[in-house]
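pipeline stage [seq->struct] | target=TMD11 protein | organism=Hippolais icterina | residues=200
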Amino acid sequence: FHIGEREEKCIIEDIPTDTLVVGNYKVQRWDIHKHDFLESAPGLGMFVTVTSPSDISKLQVLLSKLYGPQGTFSFTSYLSGEHIICFQSNSTRFAVTAGSKLRIHLDIRVGEHFLDESAIQAKDKVNEVNVRLEHLIEQIHHVTREQDYEREREEKFRKTSEETNSNILWWAIVQTLILISVGIWQIKSLRDFFIAKKLV
């Protein structure tokens, strides 16, 4: 994605609890003379800020750190919900003169656990199988957490839908009672009017 040199860009990731998130990014700066993005952005860093929802519906900062023009950040979610990941360059130029565009290549992996291939190759076959089994078990735990989180979201959505349907039913009943009351009042008023005018 593209951002201005002094602009902040945020993305939202819906992450289950106790999940490792790893992000890799690379920044390229626009070159006015070449009319293209440079391969890197020397001297330019990125502030990466990660906030998560807390129990009292406020945001809690999980990560706030300055990285270089290319880097890797990681954090673990403690609560399930929408996590906000924000990027802003550390450019010191004034907003008026900082008209340069930046291109950010971003790769975010949620719940991924990496195997250290060099450690696996250094050990014998039994240990290799053991390490790979542990890795698979970790991935199974992650899938289970993801399913629990989706189940929790589905229950919350179902509850909201049922409450909305209930409210719609009560609103329809109230509307019907109001219409019946207005109809009875109009009939009574017309009857009284006709009696007063001696038309009945």
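stage status: PASS
auto-comment: Residues 132-185 form one domain. The mean pLDDT is 82.
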